Amino acid sequence: MDCQAKDNVMNIGGEQDIVIVGGGICGLATALALHRKGIRSMVLERSESLRAAGVGIIMQPNGWRALDHLGVAPKLRQTCIEIPSGLFIAAEKGKFRESELPLGKGELRCLKRRELMKALAEALPAESVHLGCRVVSIVTDPLTFDPVLQLHDGTLIKAKIVIGCDGVNSIISKFVGVNSAKLFSRCAARGFTYYEHGHPFHDKFRLHDSGDVGLGQLPVTDKLAYWFLTRSLTSQDMSDSKKDPAYIKEVSVEALKGFPEKMVEMVKATDPNALYLTELWYRTPWDIARAKFRKGTVVVAGDAMHAMCPFISQGGGASLEDAVVLARCLSEKLKQAGNQSGDRRKMLIEEALGLYVKERRMRVFWLSLQTYLIGLTMDNTSKMKKALGIAGLILVFGDQKGHTDYDCGHL
Ligand SMILES: Cc1cc2nc3c(=O)[nH]c(=O)nc-3n(C[C@H](O)[C@H](O)[C@H](O)COP(=O)(O)OP(=O)(O)OC[C@H]3O[C@@H](n4cnc5c(N)ncnc54)[C@H](O)[C@@H]3O)c2cc1C
Questions:
Q1: Most CB atoms within 10 A, among 96, 113, 300, 403?
Q2: How many Cβ atoms from other residues are within 10 Å of residue 410's Cβ?
Q3: From the CA of 59, how far away is ligand 1's center (Å)?
Q4: How far is Cα 379 from Cα 376, in angstroms, rounded to an integer?
Q5: Whose CA is nearest to atom 39 of ligand 1?
Q6: Ligand 1: does its nearest atom lie under 6 Å from the Cβ of 313?
Q7: Reduced to 3 states, what is the DSSP secondary structure of residue 99?
Q8: CATH second-level architecture of 182-282?
Q9: CB of 112 sitting under 6 A from ligand 1
């Protein structure tokens, strides 16, 4: 992506205060939240540039609240239109029937991921993000009990605090003892389609469901539309083909047989450079309910904590909330620590990280439970699982959009 690489001028080896592993949405947002509280941190990102894989991201009212607390929402609002209403279009006996798609109360927009990453990165001090720094291991120093990170080139970094924002296959979450994320039986293709003379979708979120295939479409601007398609995962989707835009387009168009022509044309006209196919990973709700998420002064956030399938479009929003809560908890306890060093300071840091985990656990548990139950309803191999998913959703999540009515609080 075009986000400028930050100068890697600082010597990053040796001792550091706070190291954030991973420069995705969560890592950048966490560094920014800490910066807003006057706390310095260092972000280590393994890629040579800040990546914005997945082109678009749906941001719901809770996500916008977090972006407001981070101070980047006004800039981002200028990049995308508000989406006030939605249509649910379900296939029934060969015909598509329309009904209202509930969107929850408040602001919903579809952001370009690139704009989100850029806004977060640009609000950081220039020396914060270090690209091309892959963390290959983390151990505890046997004398001081501080975490020690090793980079791919052998550089050792001893940190006071490590925050693992390194995504689904996180090295840091393994270190703190979280079970690995699980592979879901479906995959998602996503893309941007540009319409020179404006798209015909107005300001509506459209969600088509044919049982086997789900197709969502949202306007980003008057001329740019974002779409996502979910379908069963095949072995070819997990091979190198998933990086080939021609393959992604071909199988997506194939999956859309019988869908309205306007939607098929949208997928056919997708910019090949803005096409992605991804497997879907998730952590089970019971893993989230019982995982520790913290070991000493090492903690996890974002997908490293709560990877979830995108059925309620909350992984990114929840990652922004993590960032705000984590920075708030840390800054309160660091203030109490004042100039003290040694064991007392370490104890207060551990308390702060413990409070953060406590505050986030139930929030992300409910998000992951709702997502998990929706996943069960998509299971066409077992009527029992499908029924369990439907019953669970009716009994526990009467208000399907209740998850968007959440404020993580001020920094
Ligand atoms: C198909 C799909 C659609 C989605 N749609 C939405 C949506 O509409 N709305 C929404 O809110 N959420 C959505 N999500 C979820 C959202 O994308 C994620 O929750 C969010 O990107 C998580 O951000 P993160 O920073 O935690 O992880 P990531 O974005 O995965 O970032 C992790 C970063 O860490 C780096 N890294 C990994 N390992 C190391 C290492 N060892 N050393 C250094 N760096 C490392 C990676 O390179 C990467 O940059 C969707 C997800 C998928 C799969």
A1: 300
A2: 9
A3: 14
A4: 5
A5: 166
A6: yes
A7: strand
A8: 2-Layer Sandwich (3.30)
A9: no
Instruction: Judge whether 321 and 410 are in contact, CB under 8 Å.
Output: no
3-class DSSP assignment, residue 98: strand
The chain-wide mean pLDDT, for the chain, equals 94
Q: Residue 271, Cβ neighbours under 10 Å: how many?
A: 13
Q: In this structure, which amino acid lies at residue 232?
A: S
What residues contact 160, with CB distance under 8 A and at least 6 apart?
Answer: 16, 17, 18, 146, 297, 346, 349
Instruction: Report whether 107 contacts 63 (CB < 8 A).
Output: no
Would you state the pLDDT for residue 7?
Answer: 44
Rounded CA gap, 4 and 2, in Å? 6
Topology (CATH level 3) of domain 14-78+112-180+283-404: FAD/NAD(P)-binding domain (3.50.50)
Q: Provide the residue ranges of all domains of the chain, joining segments of one domain with +.
A: 14-78+112-180+283-404, 182-282
What average pLDDT score do residues 105-133 get?
96
Whole-number Å distance, alpha carbon 94 to ligand 1 midpoint, is 37
Residue-wise pLDDT tens digits, 233-256:
999 999 998 999 999 999 999 999
**Residue from 344, 345, 360, 363 nearest 299 by CA:** 360
Separation of CA 257 and ligand 1 centre (Å):
31
Give yes or no for residue 33 CB within 6 A of ligand 1.
no
